[in-house]
Amino acid sequence: GEDVEQSLFLSVREGDSSVINCTYTDSSSTYLYWYKQEPGAGLQLLTYIFSNMDMKQDQRLTVLLNKKDKHLSLRIADTQTGDSAIYFCAGERRGSTLGRLYFGRGTQLTVWP
Amino acid sequence: EAQVTQNPRYLITVTGKKLTVTCSQNMNHEYMSWYRQDPGLGLRQIYYSMNVEVTDKGDVPEGYKVSRKEKRNFPLILESPSPNQTSLYFCASSLSPWTSEGTQYFGPGTRLLVL
Questions:
Q1: With bands split at pLDDT 50, 70 and 90, how would you rate the model's confidence at A1?
Q2: For A57-102, how does the pLDDT look when each residue is reduced to its tens digit (9 = 90+)?
Q3: Would you call the peptide bond into B8 cis, given omega within 30 degrees of 0 as the criterion?
Q4: CB-CB: which of A42, A99, A104 is closest to B31?
Q5: Which residues, other chains included, contact B1 with Cβ-Cβ below 8 Å and sequence gap of 6+?
Q6: Closest-CA residue of chain B to A96
Q7: What pairing do the DSSP bridges indicate for beta strands B10-13 and A9-13?
Q8: Which of A41, A63, B49, B98 qualifies as a cystine partner to B55, CB 3.0-4.6 A?
Q9: Whole-angstrom Cα distance, residue A41 to residue B70?
Q10: Cβ(B89)–Cβ(B112) under 8 Å?
Q11: Of A81-95, B79-93, B97-111, which gets the smallest average pLDDT?
């Protein structure tokens, strides 16, 4: 089955908050990440959270982690048209397969002016 | 400027014709990896390398080879490409395999079409 699941599409109006959700199955994931991919570009690391944290805030970005439910979310406050992109949730396995990232399918965020 | 470069950016080829996609980084990173991105599937890791002459399989290594003879270069080789290898390929590098200890930089991507 899928290691990471995300909804595929999200549309919001400029100035509203966006919330992108992700569920994961690998409870051994030590770190969980959010990446942003703009059209025609590679991935850019936005933020990450350590698994013993519940929340991390970084300017307009808030990451919430519910370890019990294996649920991760990314909230973007005051969403702008420049935030339109695909957002990937990713987990990191540690152990014998060092540093292997596993990605969700990505959520296409569209911001309407 | 810190960067990961890939060549070519776009490639159309035919089944069975060997090809190499180059990847180079100028940050003296030890860890490099290759991913493929397919619609609705996200990114899947093909191969990764911890250092020179140290490579290992990722989640989808079948049909691919890699080499790491120099620290800066990590080419991806398709000995006999097939249509199911049509995809968008990304190379990435980082100082450490632990993303939390060093940002992973991604190349711009190589779009490959195998006819």
A1: very low
A2: 999 999 999 988 999 999 999 999 999 999 999 887 765 455 577 8
A3: yes
A4: A99
A5: none
A6: B56
A7: unpaired
A8: B49
A9: 26
A10: yes
A11: B97-111
